[in-house]
């Protein structure tokens, strides 16, 4: 095992004994072994042992002192993927004269891993020893957000025939699948309530079945365009950047394009309006099971 010494320590006397584990030697001078390993004790779901070097750990510059370490049972760390355990350590030495415990606490969180199973102190006192192991809880809630920029079939085209003759307030495109989500375009040929008679309004909307969870967000960046029927690249276009949530399933433009300009130059020979949307990014998020 590899030993590692506490590096940022604070010390004080206290009356309360250790709560994780304690070893009392009736006559430490009779112990001729180089080290003493305690029985295993459980803290934070892991098994530990207290290791005492009564003559000091010479490999850790502890000769002439008593050295103390905490070792985690290595089988706790051999899961896949390999486990790291973080803990604060407080070492105790009983001061008989003061009838109190001299404590040595490391102020930095220690990382126990398969490469480093032991932390402790190379220079200590004698007779009664103990330790408090305060294990930092394992990560219980998490999320991993991915921004997918390699989207299969990122483009969707929609043709509204005889655009000037459309009578309904709004029209929905067919559903289309992009980034693992079902979407549709919603278009107001004469403008929505804020753009009535002046501009077309158009929105990219998630299907109700794709409604995110309460805390979930879906980031989308997409380029929307009204195709120039004259065959040029002078399309009417806009870029959408938006986080879709449970309360906001649609986003777009109330005044995307002037109706006068659109009717003059952007309808094809059959009077149809051609709309395209191309996705650049759709995010996906993995959550801890409790969401």
Automatic annotation (TrEMBL):
InterPro entries from the xrefs?
Answer: MATH/TRAF_dom, TRAF-like
The cross-references to Pfam families, in alphabetical order and at most eight, read: MATH_2
State which gene encodes it: LOC104767736
SUPFAM superfamilies listed in its UniProt record: TRAF domain-like
Give the MATH domain ranges. Answer: 18-133, 153-279
Source organism per entry reads: Camelina sativa (False flax)
Question: PANTHER family from the entry?
Answer: T23K8.6-RELATED, TRAF-LIKE FAMILY PROTEIN
* Protein name as catalogued: Uncharacterized protein LOC104767736
């Amino acid at each position: 095992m590899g030993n590692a010494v506490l590096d940022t320590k604070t010390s004080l006397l206290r009356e309360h004994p250790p709560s994780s584990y304690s070893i009392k030697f009736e006559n430490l001078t009779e112990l001729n072994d180089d080290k003493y390993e305690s029985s295993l004790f459980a803290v934070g779901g892991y098994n530990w042992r207290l290791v005492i070097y009564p003559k000091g750990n010479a490999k850790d510059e502890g000769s002439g002192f008593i050295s103390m370490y905490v070792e985690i049972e290595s089988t706790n760390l051999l899961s896949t993927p390999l486990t790291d355990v973080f803990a604060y350590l407080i070492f105790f030495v009983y001061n008989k004269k003061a009838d109190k415990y001299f404590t040595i606490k490391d102020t930095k969180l220690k990382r126990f891993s398969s490469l480093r199973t032991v932390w402790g102190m190379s220079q200590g006192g004698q007779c009664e020893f103990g330790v408090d192991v305060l294990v930092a809880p394992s990560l219980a809630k998490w999320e991993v957000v991915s921004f997918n920029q390699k989207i299969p079939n990122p483009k969707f085209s929609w043709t509204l025939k005889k655009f000037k003759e459309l009578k309904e307030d709004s029209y929905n495109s067919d559903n289309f699948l992009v980034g693992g989500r079902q979407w549709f375009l919603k278009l107001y040929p004469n403008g929505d309530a804020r753009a009535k008679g002046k501009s077309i309004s158009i929105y990219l909307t998630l299907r109700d079945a794709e409604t995110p969870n309460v805390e979930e967000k879906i980031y989308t960046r997409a380029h929307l365009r009204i195709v120039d029927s004259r065959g040029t690249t002078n399309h009417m276009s806009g870029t959408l950047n938006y986080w879709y949530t449970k309360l906001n399933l649609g986003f777009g433009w109330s005044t995307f394009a002037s109706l006068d300009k659109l009717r003059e130059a952007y309808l094809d020979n059959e009077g149809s309006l051609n709309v395209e949307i191309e996705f650049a990014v759709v995010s996906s998020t993995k959550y801890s099971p409790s969401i």
